[in-house]
Write a structure and sequence with these properties.
The chain is mainly alpha-helical. The chain is about 45% helix and about 5% strand. It is built from 5 helices and 4 strands, in the order H-H-H-E-E-E-H-E-H. The radius of gyration is 16 Å and the shape is globular.
């Protein structure tokens, strides 16, 4: 049994896998390759967050009738603004700078106040 299946069973929640490979290739991968060809240093993470994780993902929240979504980003959010994570060595607020303000009210970032070491400790229990 895969870990997500185990977690789903233990916490009694349904999970869905959506294939976004085509969208990722078009919106992120092709941009990355073309940028390098043109001598530009790309930032694929920021683009992926904007187009895929908080673009397509927001559509999935609506599609499945979800009130909130969560990601593993290290960043704090009050529903209106992003703030640096408690662990500045893991802070990812920069990579989410282009995410629309509208999306923020639907997002939770449960890793925001933890260090990576603490997350590993929790996961090993």
């Amino acid at each position: 049994m895969a870990k997500i299946e185990q977690l789903s069973y233990l916490l009694d929640f349904e999970y869905v896998v959506e294939d976004v490979e085509e969208e990722f290739r078009k919106e992120v991968y092709d941009y990355f390759v073309e940028s390098y060809k043109n001598g530009i240093t790309p930032n694929p993470c920021a683009l992926c967050n904007m187009k895929i994780k908080f673009g397509i993902f927001m559509q999935f929240l609506d599609k499945y009738g979800c009130q909130k979504g969560a990601t593993g980003h290290y960043v704090r959010n009050d529903g209106e603004f992003l703030y640096s994570a408690s662990d500045m060595t893991k802070d990812q607020s920069y990579f989410l700078a282009q995410v629309s303000k509208e999306s923020l009210k639907y997002m939770m970032f449960p890793m925001a106040t933890y260090t990576k070491e603490h997350i590993k400790e929790i996961g090993s229990n």
